[in-house]
Amino acid sequence: MWAVRIVMEGLTPEQYREIDNRKNPKEKMNNCQILQYTRQNPENPLHREPNFAWMRTVCPWDMTLSKNEWVEIKRPKYTSAQLLDI
């Protein structure tokens, strides 16, 4: 599931490590965790993005292990100069 998240959310290695090292059990990836992505703004259903822009996770076997709320995906954006430095 981490491979899917890295691609779908455009996570950098630093972002991945930061998420993976969190101590809050609601932010961990559990067995059978469901990831849901959407282009439709959960707060404004008439607004749609061209790419997936929100994500939520649900742990169906124990709902206390997941936040069950939509989180906006913040993909990194780079300038041309930054891309040349990478």
The average pLDDT score comes to 89
Q: Give the neighbour order of strands across the main sheet.
A: 1-4-5
What ranges have pLDDT less than 50 throughout 5 or more consecutive residues? Answer: none
Q: How many domains make up the coordinates? A: 1
Major sheet attributes? 3 strands, antiparallel
Helical content stands at 25-40%
Gyration radius, in Å: 15 Å
Number of helices: 3
Choose one word for the global shape.
flat
- The number of strands is 5
Strand percent estimate: 15-25%
Helix vs. strand class: alpha+beta
Q: First CA to last CA: what distance? A: 26 Å
Order of helical and strand elements: HHEEEEEH
What report would you give on this structure?
A hairpin with a 2-residue loop joins strand 2 (40-41) and strand 3 (44-48). 26% of the residues lie in helices and 22% in strands. The protein starts with a helix and ends with a helix. The protein has one domain (2-85). The chain is built from three helices and five strands. The strands form two sheets. A three-stranded antiparallel β-sheet has the order 1-4-5, with no helix packed on it. It has a two-stranded antiparallel sheet with strand order 2-3. It has helices spanning 2-9, 13-20, 80-85; strands at residues 34-38, 40-41, 44-48, 54-58, 71-72. It has 86 residues and is an alpha+beta fold.
